[in-house]
User: Fold these one by one.
Assistant:
Number 1:
Amino acid sequence: MKMLKNLFVALLAGAALASAADFVVIVNPANSAASISGAEMKRIYTGKMSQFGGQKAVPINLADSDPFYAAFADKIVKMSTQDYKQFWVDAQIKGEGTAPMVQRNSAAAKMIVAALPGAIAYVDASVVDATVKKIDLK
Amino acid sequence: MKRIIALGMMGLGVLSVAQAQEADKFKVYGFADMSMEYYKNASSFNTQFLGQDKLNLALTHANTYFDFNPNQNIKALLEVGFTSNKSKDVYSVGSDPNLIVDPSGNALSDAQIIGYVTSLKLDSIVAATNTAMGLPAGSITLAQLEGMAPGTTAAVQSGVTEALTPQLAQARASQEAAKEKRYQNISIQRAYFDLLINDGINFRMGQFITPAGIWNVDHASPVILTVRQPLQTTVTPIFPESQLGFMLYGRQYLGDHDLNYNLYATSGRTGPSAASIGSGYDNSIDSPSDLAVGGHIGLKLDILKGISFGISSMTGTMRKKFQDQQATLALADLLQGAIAAKDLQYNSHFDTKEREFIVGGDTKIEAGNLTVQGECNFRTIDNQLVKGKTDMLGYYGLVAYKIAMGNNFGVSPYAMYENVGWKTTDAGARSLGDSDINGFYLALSGLNFSIFTNFHLKLEVSRLQLLLNKNPTNFPTDITENDLASNVFSSQFSVAF
C-alpha cells in the first residue's frame, strides 16, 4: 500500500513537472498541416525532414536560457541540451546542414513564424495569437 | 501610442526575418585541430609506412566551409583544407643512380635530371658527358643539353647519367640532409552543388566524400571520437575518401525509423599510376572511361538512442595510360639544335589496369551513454595487366562511454581495435605497397574531453603492429616483431567554429 502511495505521489510530481515544461507548436498560417508527430518534429529539428505542410520547413529554436529549450530537447529530440548542441556541430562539419535559427524567447519566435512561410516553433502558449497557427503535437 | 509601439515592433520583426533569411543563404564555418604524436619506438619501417618522425607536431587541419543556399532547391558547399606538418620526408632516394629529388622533394627522371643539373650551371657536366660518350670536347654544349632534355635518346641519356654520377651523389647527400621539412598544403576537400527536390530524391554534382561506412562520412576531428581515424579510411583507404561525379541521395521514413540511401557514378578512385609509384611524378593520363558506381544504404532505428546499420559497395576500374616521348635522330642532327616537334613520337600504353570491387558493412548502437560502433570492409582488385589479384579485408570495433560533467563538460573514455590484411597473388598489383607486409593491427584507447561543445581535447595511447609475410624477400631475416611496431602517445585539440 505504501508503495502504491509513493508511486501515485511520484506520478503526480512527474505530471506537474511536465505541465510546467509544456509548450505548443506553432506554424505560419500558410502551412496546411493541422498536426505534427513527435517523430516529424524531431526530423525537422535534426535537419532530416525539409518539407512540412506544403512548405520548406524552417525550424526555430529557443535560446538555451529559455526553459522550453531544455524541455523540447528532452521530450522531442530526446537528447540532453549539450548533446543536441553537439549534434549540430557534428552535422555542420559533416556537411549535413546547419543549426536552426535561434530566437531569445517565445515572443520573438512567434514573430518570426508569423512573418516566414514554412517557419515552425515551439513556444509558450501565452504568446499564441491570430498571426500564427497552433497545431497539435501528437 | 500602443499602435506606434506595435508598428515599430512589427517593423523590427520584419527586419529580423529579412536579416535571418539573408544570413541563412551564405554561411562560413569550419574546424581546426592541432595534434602532437610521440613515437616511443619509431622504426624505419613504420616511419616509412606512416610517414612519421619520432615526434610530430602538426596543425593537422584548418578547414573552412563556404555554404551557399540561395533558395530551397539549390545548395553549394566548398570545403577548403589547410595542413601544416613538420615531419620527416619519407621519400626514399634509393640506390638507383637515376633517381634524384629536386629541392621541392619531387623525384626526377633521367631527362629531368639533365634539365635540373644543367640549371645548376654545372659546366663540368658538359665536358664529362662528351668524355663519357667518346665525343671530342665541345661536341655537346650546355645549351644543347638543356634543349634536348625532353627527347634525348637512350644513348645520350646514358652518357649524361654516367657523367653526372658524382653530381648525383652530391645532390643525393644534400637531399638526405634536407629531409626534415615542414609541409604545408591547401586542398579542396569537397566542392559540390546539390539540387534539392524533396527528402526522397536529391542530386549532387562535384567532388564529394564517398558515402561509405561511418567514419569516412564523419570525416573530421570534432566528430571523430579518436585522434586518428581507422587507417583503413586514411592510410590504406579501402573505399576512396572522396570522388568526383554525380550522386543521387535521399531518405524514406518508415514510421519512426529512417531509411537513407546514396547512389553515385564517379570518375572512380584517383591515385598515382603503378609506374609512377616511388618516382614522385605522375606523367600518366587518367582515362575518362575509369567509371565507378557505388552506394550506401542505411537503416536507422529509433530504438534506445539509435541503432543504425549500413551496407556500402562500389565497383570501378582504374586505368592509367603512360605517355612516352621518343625521337630517334642522327647525332649530327641532334647537335644542330633542339628536336623539332615533327621528330617526336608519342607512345601511350596502360601501366595500370585494375578493376576493383568493394563491399562493406557498418553498425552503430547508442544506448544511454554507451556507444558501440564497427565497420568491416572487403576490397578485391583484379589486375588486368598481370594475371592475378589482391584481396584486402579491414575491420574495426570501438566502444565508448560518455560521462557528462554539468552542461558544458564531458569526458568519453574509448577503446578501439582495428585489423587490416591483404594478400597479393601477383607482383603487378602494386597499389597496396610492399608485398612483404601483408597487414597491420592498431589497438588504442584514450579519453575525449568535450568542452563547451565546440572544443575537444583527446589523449590517446596506441600500438600499431605491421604484419610481415611468412617468407619476406626484402627484409632482413633477423627482424623482430617489435621492429615493426609503433607505440604512440597522441594528443589532439580541436575546435569547431
Number 2:
Amino acid sequence: MAVISRGFTGRRAPEAGKLPPGQYLTATFPVLSAGPTPHISLDRWEFKIDDGTQVLRRWDWKSFRSLPTETFTTDLHCVTRWSKLGTRWEGVSLDTMFADLKTDESYALVRSYGDYTTNVPLKDLMNHQAWIAFRFEGEDLAPEHGGPARLLVPHLYLWKSAKWVRGMTLMREDKPGFWESLGYHMYGDPWREQRYSGDE
Amino acid sequence: MWRLGTVVALRDETATARTIMLEIPDWPGHAAGQHVDVRLTASDGYSAVRSYSIASAPSVERRIEISVERLPDGEVSPYLTRELAVGDRLELRGPIGGWFVWRPRQTEPIQLIAGGSGIVPLMAMIRSRAAAGSTAPFRLLYSVREPGSVWYRDELRSLPERNHSVSVTYAYTRATPKDWPRPAGRIDTALIASATWPSNLAPTCYVCGPTSFVESAAGLLSGTGNNPAKIKTERFGPTGDRQ
C-alpha cells in the first residue's frame, strides 16, 4: 500500500493511457550512455552477424544502405522513466537482414562500437519488431543518439536498442549484456515494468 | 521492493537546490555513485517516480542524503525542494546502478568532472573516499554557472586543508569571482590539460552533468589520450531531471 505524499497532487499527462506503468512523458530526447560518444566513419563502419565461431553475414555501409528500408513511427520507453511518443525513424528491418539466414539459436548478443553489449531473444528481433535505424525525424542519426546506425527494438526498454551497433552474436543460451550484468532485467518489457533484475 | 524513508533533516544548497537526509530502517547500503528511485503518491493514488543520485557515503547508519535541484516545470522536484518537511515519509527503491560507481578498493588516480547538479554522485565518491580512509589521489573539476551555484560549498572548501590528495578546480561559465584568473567560459582543452590528471597516469574518469556538458568533457578527455573505456559518464536529459 503506497504512502500518500502530503500535499502532492502531481501532473497527469493527457496521453497517460499510452504510457507504461511508472513512466512520464517528455517532448525532449534525453541521451544516456555509459561512456564517451564514439565517432565512427562510414568508410570503416561494418555490421556482422556471427554465431560465436564464424561470421554468417557482413555488410559495409554501402551494402547495408543498398538493402530495402522502412520508415516507421514508434514510442520509446527508457528505464530511467521517460517516454517519448510518436518518433519517426528509417532503417532496415532485421527480417531483411536475416532473410536467407537459417539458425537454430534463440538469443542474440548485440555488440556496439565502444564495447557496449545487450542481449535480446531472437524472436523479439523478428516479425517487424526491430530495425537497424540510421535516420531519425528525417535527419541522419546524430552520434549522441547512436549514429551512424543503432538497433531499435522499441517494444523493450530503450537500453536494449543499442547505439552505434556493429553486429550481433547468435547464442543458444541467454547471456547478460552490459546493463544486464549490472542489475538490470534480462528481458526489459516496459508494460510489465521489468526494470531491475529482481522484477518478475 | 519499495522501502519507506523518513525525512530527518533538510538543508538548502543554493537558492534552488536542497539536500534531503532520509532514515531508511531496511537500507541495505550502497556504493558511491549509485542512485535511488523516489516515489510520490497523490491522495487519489496517482504516483510519479524520479531517480536521484545519492550524495552521502555509505555508512553503518541507515541514512542516505539526496540533493535535488528545483526545475521550473518539474513535477517531482518542486515538491521535494519546497513542500517536503522533516518527519514526512517517502517511498524509495534502490540502490540502483553498478557502472558509475567508485569503490574503496580502487587505488588508481580518480578524475571527477561535474557540471552543475552533476556534482552529487561525485560528492558521494569524495565522501566515500574519506569514510573508507582511502589514499587514492582524487581531482575534481567542477563547472558551475556562477559562484552562488556551488553545492556543498563549505565542505568542498575545507577538503584540501584536511586532505592533500584531493584537489578541486572550479570553472565558471557565466560569472566568476572577483580577480579570477580564467574568464567565464565552458571547459576547454587548456583547462583539461591544466586541471586533470595526465592521461599516462591512466586515471579512471567520472563525468556527470547535462548532456551537452558531458558530451564535450568526455570528448576532451578522450581527445587528450584517455582510454574511452576508463571514462564513465552519466548524463542528464535536456529537461534536467536525472534521466
